[in-house]
Amino acid sequence: MGGPLPLGDPAPADGRLPDDLDIDPAADFGVYLHVPFCRVRCGYCDFNTYTASELRGARQDDFADTLAGEVRLAAEVMDAAGARRAASTVFFGGGTPTLLPPGDLARMLNAVREQFGIADGAEVTVEANPDTVDATVTRTLAEAGVTRLSIGMQSARPHVLAALDRTHDPRNVATAVAAAREAGLDVSVDLIYGAPGESLDDWRASLETAIALHPDHVSAYALIVEDGTKLARQIRSGAVAEPSDDLQADMYELADELLGAAGYDWYEVSNWSRGVSHRSRHNLAYWRGTDWWGFGPGAHSHVAGLRWWNVKHPAAYAQRLVAGESPAAARERPDETARRLESVLLRSRIREGLAVSEILGEGRRAVASLIADGLIEGADAVRGRIVLTLRGRLLADAVVRALTV
């Protein structure tokens, strides 16, 4: 169920945005739809998700209609602010969105279409567990307007999946990819490296298996031990070893080598695609700091520098909406310094980087030493951009600290 929500200022019951918010009605607008249901809880996961025994009165079969209520409320709020506009990207995340019938996902997408509109050429992504995908599912999603399926492969090795508490059959990844292709969907596969007991050879096998499926996009994330998870408790008790930083660095370099050789370009520290057209436009919007509205329990939103987040539990979320109230738990408006720091943190991770002119004070003076240390590209810096080298990607946090002192 994840950690506690952030602290913030009280959010108004009607969801109204501050009158002095400077919203650009021509800016891109993303929609995130959080489906918080999972069959089992993975030991490493701290997302806001719930198994059947944890729902305490909330019902999966009511969820699509409940979320549509928040979409209607959001449209009214954005109308009042003069900022309602069509969605340029839509992303179904979770949880496991494909635990719901595909018709429910289609209804949720149609609610966005009816209340906001979906822009021509919009990217519409659904995250999927390989065991929940077949030709009927992908065909229904494609007919509803979905354009992209993001498949949670994680590993090709059964013992690595077991260490992660992943229950899917690794053979079903190829089946899911084939079904997505048949429906005309773009395909992304998600991988995790650094699980307990995973060797470099295991990781190589997973990469080679993923590449052989010819996806349009690959995400590869280092396993992070989050407080409060089963994995954290296992490490604390000594039952399993903590992930090795050195091994994870070797795994990252291997991923970049094999994916690059197969024709995939990195465009964010943990993401590679077959050319610009297959990059995740929705996730790029997060890294660039544009506007999005997150629907569903625990979802976060950002509009013109204002951030807010919904109550976490599906039952509390539904109760707010039934009462005609916003499900927002709290909100905040970071000051200019905080926004600048966040911009450096996020935008330094992407291939386009950020302008040297956005770096202030001691951070600007650190650019030369970062070039000398091989952490940022010298040629790009001369042209006025901060772009990470391969070594810089491995040490991205250190680069951000140097740029924001």
- Report low-confidence residues grouped into runs of 5 or more: none
Share of residues in helices: 25-40%
| Radius of gyration, taken over Cα atoms and rounded to an integer in Å | 21 Å
Question: What best-fitting shape do the alpha-carbon axes yield?
Answer: globular
Number of strands: 15
N- to C-terminal separation? 34 Å
The largest sheet has its strands arranged as 8-9-7-6-5-4-3-2-10
Please summarize the sheet with the most strands.
Answer: 9 strands, mixed
Strand content range:
15-25%
Indicate the structural class. Answer: alpha/beta
| Average pLDDT over all residues | 94
What is the helix tally? 16
Compact description:
With 405 residues, the protein is of the alpha/beta class. It has helices at 63-80, 102-115, 135-144, 158-163, 172-182, 200-212, 230-237, 245-261, 281-288, 314-322, 336-347, 361-365, 367-372, 378-382, 390-394, 396-403; strands at 9-10, 29-35, 87-94, 118-128, 148-154, 186-193, 217-222, 265-268, 271-273, 291-295, 300-303, 306-310, 328-332, 354-355, 385-386. Helix 3 (135-144) links the parallel strand 4 and strand 5 (148-154).
